[in-house]
Amino acid sequence: MVVVVEVSVEERASVMDDQLLSMLSRSLHRLEGDLPGLDDLLVPRQACSGENAGKPPARRTSKVPLVVSVLDVKVETEWLLRRWVMALVRADPGQAPVPGCGGVEDAAWLFSRVALIAEMPWGVMCAEEIIAQARFVSDVVMPPEEKDAPSPLEVGGVREIVSWAHHFGVQVSRRTVYRWVDSGVIDSDVTPDGRVLVRLEDVLNACRDQRNHNVAQVS
Fold first, then answer.
1. Which domain of life is it from (predicted)?
2. What number of other Cβ atoms are within 10 A of residue 203's Cβ?
3. What is the side-by-side strand order in the sheet with 189-190?
């Protein structure tokens, strides 16, 4: 007997392409290496000898325009990885969840199953969240050193803010941002020449809330 499965337009649009699959694999591998770096930042060490003996270490700061502590980043990342581990286990009961609840272990477990993730209707959403978080963690553990690197805009036009959101791995369209402005989801200002100004942090937070809502529906 042949079973015909109807696939909606929305599900077709959510199929993961090879490029996104490769980015997901690299991001999970990067998280395996970067997550221990967060633990190192949580335990500042002082030099025992040399010119810096007895001096507290100078901690580099992330260029991401969000006020978060290293502990917040660690907890959020581990929660994100564990959430997708459990989503995959629920979707395929034959997959045994990784023992314990460590971010490194979860990243490795997901890395070994990226092909299976790509087949899930929520695979694209999972990939986008993990890719964005991996970039965020990398910026915290080893901030960019480019001397003349531009600082992210805190407030700007919709086109500019959407561009910065994409820079941080968050996929959002100008149409969506305008819809959020019209519905009051995010605040905005209008310049004398009619430009709509929004805050990057508001857009990133709205994207995160939307993804969490979508994940709750999938779950």
1. Bacteria
2. 24
3. 155-157, 196-199, 189-190
Per-state percent for the chain, helix, strand, coil, to nearest 5: 55, 5, 40
Q: Given the structure tokens 């993804």, which residue do they identify?
A: 211
Rounded Cα distance, 101 and 98, in Å: 8
Tokens of 175: 């149409």
Burial 135-147 (b: 16+ CB within 10 A, else e): bbbbbbbeeeeee
Q: Provide the token pair at 82.
A: 């564990």
Three-class SS state of 175:
helix
Provide the phi-psi class of 100: left if phi over 0, else alpha when psi is between -120 and 50, else beta. left
The pTM score is 0.52
Q: What are the residue boundaries of the structural domains of the chain, listed by start?
A: 18-43+68-141, 155-217
Q: How far is CA 140 from CA 9, 177, 208, 218, in A?
A: 38, 27, 19, 30
Lookup result for tokens 């199953």 = 113
Count of CB atoms within 10 A of residue 82's CB? 19
From the CB of residue 161, how many other CB atoms can be counted at a distance below 10 Å? 27
> Helix count (H) and strand count (E) of the chain?
9, 3
